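Running this now, will post back.
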Amino acid sequence: MGLAILMGLGMVLVIEGLVFALAPSRLEDLLRAMQAISPETRRLIGLCAVAAGAVLTSWAVSLL
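Update: finished.
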């Protein structure tokens, strides 16, 4: 179980790092676009992302 969490964290860091390394100007555009979204909508998007991530992680662990 701990190994799966560590692998998941590593994959998140790789993906996040690629955004910063390959498209830093696009990241600035994304941050400006996020400012136009209300905090409540951003919170809902975040909660949906957490739920989707939990479901995917649970599914992946059940396949191990």
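The two ends are 9 Å apart (CA to CA). More later if anyone needs it.
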